[in-house]
């Protein structure tokens, strides 16, 4: 009987030993934490921040250390996790109404790209990081676009994105968040405003077409006027050159006649010769035509005829 009691006692001792051994293994395994790549885990010791676990195998003190669980509320629901994703994340916000400076109500749809840079601040400085970023983006959109007119909102989309990114990045820095990009997807004004904008665009295209056509006609007229002006200048230049050459030819002829008359002993003045020559040409023109035409010789015709006689004598004496 005593042996049976000892056997039962030994078996209970063994079971206790097994239990404690199993408990020790469980405790030991609970102190091993494997963190995935691009993730971080915040660990608290007795309810107080202790350290941040990096990717890979990490060891914590069982019972005393515990990963900090976070509860983030998204539009799609609640998400509870103890691992923070350090990759760039996207928040797609619902459409919201914005009033521009010229009192146009429109719907704006935006997206926010952010990345957690400090896990400690993302956990302890803000209760619900995604919701805080969404509300901050919405208020910033109203603030920035409320100071702009509708045409500026459509034409300065990239400037608005950069202004929002800078504003949000500065405001969210205390939360350990880096805002990388802000993209405005859609800007939807009311249908009446869209119709008015379409008419305005058509009117602007028509105006540009008219201005372009008028400029083309004006340039064509200017080119034609320049061409006519150039042609007149060339014609005048040609006539001037012709007159200069004719005068040079007459001067040269007069010089030769003067030389010939000078060589002749009777006359040294070529003037009488030229006057006689012009007189004979005029007399020929006057005598042409109707036979009943009467020709009157001028009073000084005798001197001119004497010049003609001199010309005759000149040609007779030439060898």
From TrEMBL:
A single cellular component GO annotation: side of membrane
Membrane spanning residue stretches: 12-32
Domain Band, first and last residues per copy: 30-201
The keyword DNA-binding belongs to this UniProt entry's keyword annotation: no
A family per Pfam: Band_7
InterPro entries: Band7/mec-2_domain, Band_7, Band_7/SPFH_dom_sf
Coiled coil: 232-259
Keyword terms: Coiled coil, Membrane, Transmembrane, Transmembrane helix
Family: Belongs to the band 7/mec-2 family.
Protein name stated in the entry: Band 7 protein
Species: Dethiosulfovibrio peptidovorans DSM 11002
């Amino acid at each position: 009987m005593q042996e049976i009691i000892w056997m039962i006692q030994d078996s209970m001792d063994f079971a206790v030993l097994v239990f404690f051994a199993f408990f020790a293994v469980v405790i030991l395994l609970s102190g091993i934490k494997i963190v995935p790549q691009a993730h971080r885990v915040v660990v608290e010791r007795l309810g107080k921040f202790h350290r941040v676990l990096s990717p890979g195998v990490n060891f914590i003190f069982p019972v005393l250390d515990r990963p900090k669980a976070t509860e983030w509320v998204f539009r799609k629901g609640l998400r509870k996790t103890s691992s923070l994703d350090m990759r760039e994340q996207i928040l797609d916000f619902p459409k919201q109404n914005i009033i521009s400076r010229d009192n146009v109500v429109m719907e704006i749809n935006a997206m926010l790209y952010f990345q957690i840079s400090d896990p400690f601040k993302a956990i302890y400085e803000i209760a619900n990081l995604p919701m805080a970023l969404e509300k901050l983006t919405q208020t910033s959109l109203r603030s920035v676009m409320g100071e702009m007119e509708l045409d500026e909102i459509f034409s300065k989309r990239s400037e608005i994105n950069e202004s929002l990114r800078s504003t949000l990045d500065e405001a969210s820095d205390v939360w350990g968040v880096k805002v990388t990009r802000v993209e405005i997807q859609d800007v939807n004004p009311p249908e009446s405003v869209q119709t008015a904008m379409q008419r305005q665009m058509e009117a602007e295209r028509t105006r540009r077409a008219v201005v372009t056509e008028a400029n083309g006609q004006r340039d064509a007229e200017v080119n034609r006027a320049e061409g006519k002006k150039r042609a007149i200048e060339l014609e005048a230049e040609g006539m001037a050159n012709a007159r200069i050459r004719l005068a040079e030819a007459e001067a040269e002829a007069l010089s030769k006649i003067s030389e010939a008359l000078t060589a002749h002993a009777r006359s040294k003045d070529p003037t009488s010769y030229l006057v006689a020559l012009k007189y004979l040409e005029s007399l020929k023109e006057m005598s042409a035509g109707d036979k009943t035409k009467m020709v009157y010789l001028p009073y000084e015709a005798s001197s001119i005829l004497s010049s003609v006689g001199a010309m005759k004598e000149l040609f007779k004496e030439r060898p």
